[in-house]
Specification:
mainly alpha; 3 helices; about 0% strand; elongated
Length: about 60
């Protein structure tokens, strides 16, 4: 599952049917695969938004 989430995070266009088959072989059903995908994607999205808005970062000081 972690390998799948890392792949999804780095480049979702590289996730293929065989990645889902590996998850099934590890015991995840289609609903679990959907949930894993949705949760990881949501975290990726919300972190990207927070990073773009500077949430949680100290302001840069001007030299």
């Amino acid at each position: 599952m972690v390998d799948y989430v890392v792949k999804l995070t780095k480049d979702a266009t590289q996730v293929w049917k065989d990645d889902h088959e590996k998850l099934r072989a590890a015991g995840f059903d289609d609903q679990a695969i959907l949930q894993i995908t949705l949760i990881a994607s949501w975290f990726n999205y919300i972190n990207r938004v927070a990073d773009a808005l500077g949430v949680g970062r100290e302001p840069r000081s001007e030299p």
